[in-house]
Amino acid sequence: MGIFKLRKNKRFSYTPRHFDGNNGEGSPYEIKHKFDDYRKTVGPNGLKTKFTNAFEELKEKPDREANRRILIIAIVLITIFLFIIDFDLSIFFPE
């Protein structure tokens, strides 16, 4: 065994006991994200196609309720933080 030689990984021919490859569900080893079915940028596309699809998704009309909810949550958290550190708001108002 040489000092600079790397060990090769062992390969096993394992098939799951209850896997039926003919039912159309695909490979049990396939790792897929939760929202890949709803995104256009996932898949075997070229680089230019991925960029154009990403810009199209970015230009789509945003969900106003979700944006409003995020804004309200951010304002509440910032207010709580300023209250905890005892921030004085009178520095913004001239006397």
Short description:
The protein has two helices and no strands. By secondary structure, the protein is mainly α.
**Percent range for β-strand residues:** under 5%
| Termini separation | 81 Å
Largest sheet: none
The number of strands is 0
- Write the H/E string, N to C: HH
Number of helices: 2
Query: Which residues sit in consecutive blocks of at least 5 with pLDDT less than 50?
Result: none
Computed structural class:
mainly alpha
Cα-atom Rg, whole angstroms? 27 Å
Shape: elongated
Oligomerization status of the protein chains: single chain
What's the overall average pLDDT, rounded? 78
- What level of helicity do the residues show? 25-40%
Task: Outline the structure in words.
This protein is an all-alpha fold and 95 residues long. It has a domain at 36-92. Helices cover 36% and strands 0% of the residues. The longest helix has 21 residues, at 64-84.
Secondary structure layout plus pairing:
Elements: H1 47-59, H2 64-84
Keywords for this structure?
95 residues, mainly alpha, 2 helices
